[in-house]
Design a protein that fits this description.
12% strand; Helicase, Ruva Protein, domain 3; extended; Rossmann fold; Signal recognition particle alu RNA binding heterodimer, srp9/1; six-stranded mixed sheet; 4 domains
Length: 624
């Protein structure tokens, strides 16, 4: 496109000459008869010339003109011009300067060749990127010790085990001679593994800040380009810069973007760009040339897809698991994220930590910021306990929806949610119900919140069955109160299917299938490497568990129909009920609790109707 434009400009500049007025051929003949033509130049049927006096045609006027003689013209133009002593000049078609013709014909090709030669020369004379030149230079961001405020371990909380695992790396980077005099070598690579938002990137920055060494940071996707070989060139350039600044740290975020197993990837030919990049990383980390005093940190939330050659000793020697924080860890994280907030006296971070089981550091930071935004919107001077309550709800369900529900639909939703809440009180070992609401928020028209008393790491079969029974409480309440079912239990049924299928296929909680795990390693999906008979038996066992829990839910609500009616009427009057109001409406005695009751944690799922289960570890484990 650029070459065509240049060719057009050259043609206009070098061949157009002075601007001429275009006149009809009849006007030209009239001026010739009047003796007003000074001279003419003809090329084929095109005629150019000068008038003796200014001629006006339309909005244009002047003495320079051009016109076209029609091919059917029968007049004797030569005789007419000779009669008036007009000099006639003729040029052959296509004539012109030979140099100009060559320039117009070969100009674009010459420009293209010149551009290619220029790029080739640039590529051959540019640094470590080799023939790829500037394309092969690493895009890693360098954070030097003097570049600005540093992130240290004091800015990281809730992942104390991971911090302790990295303390030795920090000590080596500070005083490498202490280890080298004994012949010890620092691990070449450390892989940070954990769910999104747990603080893997923050932990890597803290290592750089604590060690006070150059820190090269980039995402794995920045290595790969459409041009084959660019990724490998960038890897070489990155490690060359890191070695020049050694002892230093390289941090590669989202390593799975280029580190996927080569056996499972579909590649076409040996020049696959991602595979070349991975091979170069393997060589740089532990190849023929020893890699000294450069520590490679990498983060991923999918370690199961990484190539085995990347995980062997000598490359990523250590795997540091960055897990979601426990209650004490969540409180420590909240202290960091609220240290710049003006908190009201009624804010208890330990209570908030207890109400946010399963939350990671990114979630808690978002809650603290949302609470501050809510307080500022209300015009408050301090962030209160109620602001944190609202922030937790808003981060899960979104803003309140201005939906006006009809009385019949509102009553149906009240019974549905009351069924969940009542089952939370009746099912032994169920997570305590903290709030019941029929106020539409986000994608839900109503919600029942449950808060685990403590962090859970292991779950008995009775607890999982209780989760299924509780999730089916809304559907069962519709059957008991209306004798029919609606679409409101969609998200409940999804949770029920996930839990029941995991019980059978993952946890070996089926007496017919026995202690077998039928899932794919790492992602938890059911693997289809078993027989059709086993698949049929799996479906039958899932159906059996769900049917048994459903019958139990219907039985309990039928026996407690009066409590269900009272709870539904109570929530219809107030729209939202807290723990004490729920117990008062049902007439059930509230058990003693070791932890204060505050805002609810977020639900595991939301739908067009409800979101019922709390976000705790079992939810994330089952969906893992």
């Amino acid at each position: 496109m650029v070459l065509l434009l240049l060719n057009y400009i050259i043609s206009i500049v070098f061949t157009s000459g002075p601007a001429r007025m275009t006149v009809p051929y009849t006007t030209f003949v009239q001026q010739a008869n009047a003796g007003n033509v000074k001279d003419v130049t003809a090329q084929s049927n095109s005629i150019q010339g000068d008038f003796k006096k200014t001629v006006t045609y339309g909005t244009a006027s002047g003495t320079l003109f051009q016109t076209e003689r029609p091919v059917f013209a029968q007049d004797n133009l030569v005789a007419l011009l000779t009669q008036h002593n007009v000099p006639i000049t003729a040029t052959p078609p296509g004539s012109g300067s030979p140099l100009l013709s060559l320039l117009i014909s070969f100009g674009p090709a010459l420009l293209l060749i010149g551009g290619l030669l220029y790029l080739s020369r640039r590529m051959q004379t540019t640094g470590p990127g080799g023939i790829l030149g500037a394309f092969g230079q690493s895009r890693a961001k360098l954070y030097s010790p003097d570049s600005g405020p540093k992130t240290t371990f004091a800015d990281v909380a809730g992942i104390e085990e991971a911090k302790q695992d990295l303390a030795q790396v920090v000590d080596f980077l500070r005083t490498p001679e202490k280890y080298q005099r004994l012949g010890a070598q620092i691990p070449h690579g450390i892989l940070l593994v954990g769910p999104p938002g747990t603080g893997k990137t923050l932990l890597a920055r803290a290592v750089a800040g604590e060690s006070n060494r150059p820190f090269f940071s980039l995402s794995a996707s920045e290595f790969v380009e459409a041009i084959v070989g660019v990724g490998a060139a960038r890897v070489r350039d990155l490690f060359a810069k890191a070695k020049a600044a050694a002892p230093s740290i390289i941090f590669i975020d989202e390593l799975d973007a280029i580190g996927r197993s080569r056996a499972s990837s579909a590649t076409f030919g040996a020049n696959d760009e991602r595979e070349q990049t991975l091979n170069q990383i393997l060589t740089e980390m532990d190849g023929f040339t020893p890699n000294q005093n450069v520590v490679v940190l990498a983060a991923t939330n999918r370690p199961e897809v990484l190539d085995p050659a990347l995980l062997r000793p000598g490359r990523f020697d250590r795997r540091v698991t960055v897990s979601p924080p426990d209650r004490a860890g969540r409180e420590a994280i909240l202290k960091i994220h609220t240290r710049n907030l003006r908190l009201a006296p009624d804010v208890n971070l330990d209570d908030i930590a207890g109400a946010t089981a399963g939350f990671v550091g990114a979630d808690l930071r978002n809650i603290a910021n949302e609470a501050a935004l809510i307080a500022a919107q209300k015009g408050e001077d301090q962030v209160t306990h109620a602001d944190f309550d609202e922030a937790i709800e808003r981060s899960v369900l979104g803003l309140r929806r201005p939906i006006v529900l009809g009385p019949d639909e509102k009553r149906l939703i009240a019974y549905h949610e009351s069924g969940h809440a009542l089952m939370g009180l009746l099912v032994p070992g169920a997570d305590p119900v903290k709030k019941l609401t029929i106020v539409p928020r986000g994608l839900s028209l109503g919600s029942t919140y449950s808060q685990p008393i403590d962090d859970r790491y292991n779950y008995p079969e009775s607890y999982l069955r209780g989760r299924i029974t509780l999730a089916l409480g809304g559907r069962a309440a519709e059957e008991v109160a209306y004798g029919a079912v609606t679409t409101g239990a969609e998200s409940d049924l999804q949770q029920v299917n996930q839990i029941a299928r995991s019980m059978v296929a993952r946890f070996g909680m089926s007496p017919k299938l026995g202690p077998l795990n039928l899932t794919q390693p790492g992602n938890g999906d059911v693997a289809q490497h078993f027989s059709e008979e086993t698949s049929k038996l799996l479906d039958e066992e899932v159906r059996r568990i769900v049917d048994e829990c459903h019958r139990e839910s219907v039985r309990m609500l039928t026996e407690n129909r009066d409590r269900l009616d009272r709870l539904a009427e109570a929530v219809l009057k107030k729209d939202t009920l807290d723990t004490d109001e729920i117990y008062a409406a049902t007439g059930i005695s509230k058990p003693a609790s070791s932890h204060p009751v505050i805002a609810p944690p977020l639900p595991a799922n939301g739908s067009a109707r409800d979101g019922d289960l709390a976000k705790d570890e079992v939810g994330s484990e089952i969906r893992r």
